[in-house]
Amino acid sequence: MDDLSSDISNLIYRRTVAALKGQVSMSGKMLELLMLLDGRTNLRGVSQKMNIRMSDMRSYISKLKAYGVIEEVQERIAMLDPKFLGYMAGQLSTIAGPIAQVMVEDAVLEISGGTSNIPKNKAAELIELLGRQIPDESQRVGFIQNMLKKVRDI
Question: Does the structure show a pLDDT above 60 at 140?
């Protein structure tokens, strides 16, 4: 993917053996970024580790790609199906009522860093975040167990 104008937060890059032509100039942040690109962590996770904004990340990634020292990993992170989020809101509505949809939307935005997509590997974090908002212990445990079972089935 050469277009870095869209959402890049879920992209994954790795260092590559480069056939460098001449010298390249890198700032300390670019060098730190290069070291953190492990082929497993998405750019959102890397930006959080580095404590930089995604707009700065976009600029650094563009330069590193131009130097030929990184490449995009083609395997994409599996995302939670929106149907699962609907199911989750439905289950939560039996406990919290009509506010459940808003609770799920807010939790998704919090976990995803502002997007509406949640990687599957963040499902447990999402479930736990929503579970903490259920005051009754037995309902909370039931909700969490039900959601974890559903995640395993998808």
Answer: yes
pLDDT tens sequence across 30-52? 999 999 998 888 899 999 999 99
**How far apart, in whole angstroms, are the C-alpha atoms of residue 50 and residue 1?**
23
Residue 122: strand, helix, or coil: helix
* Closest by Cα among 68, 61, 91, 72 to 151: 91
The tokens 């050469």 sit on which residue?
2
Could you give the 3-state DSSP secondary structure of residue 125?
A: helix
Residue-wise burial string across 61-83, b where 16 or more C-beta atoms lie within 10 A, e elsewhere:
bebbbebebbbbbeeebebbeee
Per residue in 77-126, pLDDT (tens digit) is 678 889 999 999 999 999 999 999 999 999 998 887 777 778 888 899 99
In DSSP notation, 56-113 reads HHHHHHHHHHHHT-EEE-SSPPPB--HHHHHHHHHHHHHHHGGGHHHHHHHHHHHHHT
CATH of domain 12-72: 1.10.10.10
The residue with tokens 């079972």 is 149
The answer, yes or no, to whether residue 1 has pLDDT greater than 50, is no
